[in-house]
Amino acid sequence: MKQMTHTDLLSEKAKLVRSWSLRATTAAGSGHPTTCMSAADLTTVLFEKYFRYNLQDPLDLGNDRFILSKGHAAPLLYTLFALSGAFSPEELLTLRKFDSRLEGHPTPRFPFSDASTGSLGQGLSIGAGLALVAKREKLPYRTFVLTGDGELAEGQVWEALNFASYYKLDNLIMIADINRLGQSQETMFEHHIDEYMNRFRAFGADVIGIDGHNFSEIDKAYEDALSSKSGKPYVIVAKTFKGSGVSFLENKDGWHGKPLKEDDLKKALDELGDVDESLRFTLKKQSQVKRVSPKKGVHQKSSFTCKRGDEIATREVYGAVLAEIGATDSGVYSLDAEVKNSTFSQDFKKVFPERFVECFIAEQNMVGVAVGMARIGKKPFVSTFAAFLTRAFDQIRMAGIGHANICFTGSHAGVSIGEDGSSQMGLEDIAMFGVLPDSVVIHPADAVTTVKILPQLASHVGISYLRTLRPKTPVLYDDNETFHIGGSKTLRSSQDDVLTVVAAGITVPEALKAYDLLLKEGITIRVLDCYSIKPVDKEALLQSLAKTKKKIILTVEDHFDHGGLGDYVLNAVSDSEARVQKLSVKKFSRSGKGAELLSDAGIDAHAIVEAVHNLIK
Predict the structure, then answer these.
(1) Nearest CA among 397, 462, 488 for reference residue 435
(2) Residues catalogued as catalytic
(3) pTM of the model as a whole
């Protein structure tokens, strides 16, 4: 009997990977078997020979990381770990079932997945975040990212590669599976891999082109990538065939996202031939990393001092307090999109340059980098103008699906920014972050609130959003005031209040001005600072309704009409007999002085006074 060579063994294991990918998708009645098959040989060599991993602890800092950027190939990911001993291969037949952890695209329900993927083009950014932490903290793991060729049309891929080459991430290995066929047609450059290679080189990577079904070429590519000391990320451009291994699927159009029917499955398995079901990958022992728990003390009283009446922009507070938090929590990182002198994240950089990451003007990549960092226990604070986070909403949405622990900070929110005009005004950001399940949205009106709430956002687990202001606002609170997520502050109240005005951020001082104007007329209103928009302080809202003559709440906010403060208040009191009237921004604004624009939007003190008059008639 002929002795099996190493190449023969690889071929048999790759055949088993293909077999399970086919069987799992047929059992599910949906899925993408052919895109799993094109990458079967590439990943078989990786898991058989190079991948180091401790299955008992997916978050072991010695583990290599594997990002499946082409998330529709999830059965491949699941099969690789099943055949490595993470769980029984029989579980693969539960793919896409309601009670299965093996979802159609990877999510945290599958503990061996380093990222939620499926929205294409995001995996390399996540990998770059992981690789950057390894570089900065001298951790031994390598990061592998498997991409498809269709997703290479996404600009974020090139943002990520630009970032990786700038930061010399030679511990990042990208495997580009160039299988030619997309969902509805051929991919941009089909099998002309030189076109891809030239582009990767132009973005600063070391690049090799290979036959993605030739085991010796694949092996050599990994060897070269892992031994490279060039200071460049390494890209393996692999020419492959979709559906490889089965003649009626291989390189054939029309099979994307189509599982095989039972009769076609039988034909495919017959063509693959006998497979040894006992074959398994023996993962390499991970590098030993001495467990050092991050420094995580309790943030005490801030050294940032101010007193009532001082004029301070909430954005000015952000960086200084974050630096103090960074001194007590070594897991905190600050990421900024080249506006650090406006967001004031530069204050963190001055103290902790090794934990500051300049992401330049590439917000989508910045969010992906933060997701990678969060995967291994870091707490990234991501900052830019509120308006510019909107271009990264898909990445933020995917971060939420992945249960990433990230705090986003959007400065320059609302029409109050003034002369810069509409393009710079974040007016949809509360709606954007608030719509995510379990997210937290905070909008401080003054410096003290910002100082007190930031440490709570640092300890919060999940997606949170801090909305800060460009203009200076008066300090409203003494330093001994307490604030908490889900809280609010009643700033003005009496037994004769006719209704409640609820404000947040820049509209709080406007509401206080309106109070003074109305008081001259003998009209008193209750003024509530709802600094926590989500969760909103339902109890305080209901108490205010119970204590005012009219069961009316007037909300006022520097945000578009839908999805902001007014809607959260309306929802909170929807079971009561309250009437809620919203003052909000109902049109695109223009350049002008902040006060002019607040007036033009109908959300300044005079607009509040007019609304109160109308409501109490």
Answers:
(1) 397
(2) 363
(3) 0.97
